[in-house]
Amino acid sequence: MRTILFLIRKEFLQIFRNKFISKAIFGVPIIQMLILVPAITFEIKDVRLAIIDKDMTPESRGLISKLEGSTFFRVSYSTFSESDANDMLHRNKCNIILNIPSGFGKDITTGNQGKLSAVVNAINSSTAQLSWAYLNGVIGDYNMDQIRKNISYSQITVMPQIQITNRYWYNETLNYKYYMLPGILVILVTAIGFLLAGLNMVREKEVGTIEQINVTPVRKFHFIIAKMVPFLIIGLIDLALGLVIGKLAFNIPFEGSIMLMFFAASIFLVAVLGLALFVSTFSATQQQYMFVAFFCMIIFILMSGIFTPYDSMPMWAQDFNLINPVAYLMRINRMVMLKGSTISDISRELYSLTVLAICFSMFAIRRYRKIA
Amino acid sequence: MNKVIESSGISRSFGKTRALDNISFYVDEAEVFGFIGPDGAGKTTLFRIITTLLLPDEGEMKVLGLDSTKEYKELRKHIGYMPGRFSLYQDLSVEENLNFYATVFGTTVRENYDLISDIYSHIEPFGKRLAGQLSGGMKQKLALSCALIHKPALLVLDEPTTGVDAVSRSEFWDMLAKLRKHNITIIVSTPYMDEAMKCDRVALIQNGKILDIDSPGKIRDGFSRKLFSVRSSEKFRLITALREHPGTVTAYPFGDSVHVTLINDKAADSLYDYLIAKGIKDVSVQETEAGIEDRFLELMEKGATA
Q1: Residue A298: pLDDT band with limits 50, 70, 90
Q2: Mean pLDDT of all residues in B89-93
Q3: Are B52 and A212 a contacting pair at CB < 8 A?
Q4: Do B260 and B144 share a structural domain?
Q5: Inter-chain contact A2–B103, Cβ cutoff 8 Å?
Q6: What's the rounded Cα separation, in Å, for the pair A275 and A267?
Q7: Contact across the interface for A217 and B106, Cβ inside 8 Å
Q8: Are residues B105 and B188 in the same domain?
């Protein structure tokens, strides 16, 4: 036990003597939170429309002004030529082309079906679907207006109508930052755990200091634990720092227990550190380690459900996420922060994380050999 | 007298390279035992087996009466190892390194200070300096202090003087000589022949095989022929001419002269005439006493032809 304390003291001495790392530990969370949280958003604003109005009637004008009036759309271009509009789409000057054929106004005032056509830039399919849905909504509204105008009240009352009122729970205002911030915190903690500890271990190999340690009576698990504890502490400090920034800069709500979140993060860090140290035993140089660690982190983070809903992933991906610690903490963080989940709500995730933490640490200790 | 190291039939291969081939030797208590051989001879591999860092493929290694593969946990408490490459923490200060290694072995600097005082006193004034910023000689003294801080029974030094200046090298050997009075057994490897003379016994090692083990004096006396020191102002032409000479067995440059052995020991006069006839100026041929290097080269030559 005393040996572990001495080893941990040595690690801290080295970390804080390294001018770059000691600054980066506090700089990275601040910068990451301030840049990523506001930057990463799926909210769609300012969809640019190119409009081909061949109709030029009060009806087509009405539709265009209705579109301009919505917050989502901005008419960036008007033309009579389809090839012009296609060119605009091609050069990325607009996202949607709305074609109003001549006779549109006449058709809808005379009770015929008015026909419109739209071309949507679908390079990003989810943006395309969302903006198409918005466009549909606006046109549908316009349609209702036209119906109201053209038929009498008595007729409307007998038309069956369904009205839905909805409320968004856990994130009333659909603030995307509230959704992303817990996820960004997870990325932050993952990076600290995965990169710093592993690199530190490989550095000992690269410089040759591990050779001198290996001939001492220091035991394998002493050494691994001493490598974990400092980065566990640093990871938790960074998590706290990230939360403070989230509160001050973005006024993020925190519904659940902060203690519970730190408890979960601690287990998560042990798992990630164990995995990092396990990977480090395969790498002879820091360069090798960086490459493998980068690869692992990208997979873990993108598959964790930070951007894409967990439940809509293919089955094999959901199975993979059983061993992905990042996926568990991603869920835990969002549930605890936004929903106020309690320990019993997240017990399944906590159990799984604990199993991963034990397994990965055991792998690391077993793989790390003091005899070649 | 107790045997500190008993090695029997140790072999170790890396892929197809046979780094150690059937190595057997013993080291007595409080002996300074040297391994002399060129780079790649297998010295470091052997030391890594002795220090429990590497497992042998075959053979048995007993160190301090303990099996180095099975009882390594106990053994590690009693070995002081100084690897060839400086492997202390460069970003920790001199004092921090020393304290760290003392605590890792469950002791304190004060407890064993008398053992390292001769060595450590040289670098003590620089206690707050980072180890990475020390000069080569000072790094070496710090590494030796750290290897000794737990009062090991066996000190293993892998090429401790490589890359160190001549003054520090001789200082270093003086320090080793002083350690004898603490009854510490020392094994040391070196590519330098002159350092061999300072060991009690040496093993000549090449291509993973031990060529000879004896006291440096006896090894030197094993030289089987007469040795001639040939000098000239035109050294390059001299060596070429000597190697072309039909009566020459070996001709190796040695400092500012060339050490030559002949098929016929009495043919020294005719050698002189031969060189003059070749047009080499200022030739002198003298019989000289063989050094350990000459014996080593002779053994290598035999090993190569055998």
Answers
A1: very high
A2: 93
A3: no
A4: no
A5: yes
A6: 13
A7: yes
A8: yes
